[in-house]
Amino acid sequence: MRAANLALKFLLELCAFVALGYAGARLFDGAGAVVAAVLLPAAAIAVWALWCAPRSARRLPTPARIPVELGVFALAAVLLGVTGALVPAIVLAAVMAVNAVLLSTLRQWEA
């Protein structure tokens, strides 16, 4: 169960980055869509790599890192909803919420 939950968290990270790219492409037209489709996930990946990744030299302490991680996930779900992908947004948000509860219950935020 513990390994599966951590694998789910990793999969959700990837889904969040993909969702941000999709939302960026849908929020704008023409060249703006391409730029947003690249920059939104790139910014999220940079934030994650700097402050959330387990091997980061600058990894935030757990109490500060949890809101950053949940914020990236929430932003992805909200932007999916804004672009009209309501069902994927709701599913993503629900799975992320379950994963966060399990991370807390299983004391896996440090992993």
Describe the structure.
With 111 residues, the protein is mainly alpha-helical. The chain has helices spanning 2-27, 30-52, 62-82, 86-105. Helix 1 (2-27) crosses helix 3 (62-82), helix 1 packs antiparallel against helix 4 (86-105) and helix 2 (30-52) packs antiparallel against helix 3 (62-82). It is globular and about 45 Å long.
Question: What's the structural blueprint in terms of helices and strands?
Answer:
Layout: H1 2-27, H2 30-52, H3 62-82, H4 86-105
Determine the N-to-C terminus distance: 14 Å
Total strand count, please?
Answer: 0
Number of helices: 4
The string of secondary-structure elements, in order, is HHHH
Can you tell me the overall shape? Answer: globular
Q: Runs with pLDDT <50, length 5+?
A: none
Content-based structural category:
mainly alpha
Q: Can you give the mean pLDDT?
A: 96
Beta-strand content: under 5%
What helical percentage do the residues reach? over 70%
Main beta-sheet strand count, sense and barrel state: none
Q: Please compute the radius of gyration using only Cα atoms.
A: 14 Å
Brief write-up:
The protein has 111 residues and is mainly alpha-helical. The protein has four helices and no strands.
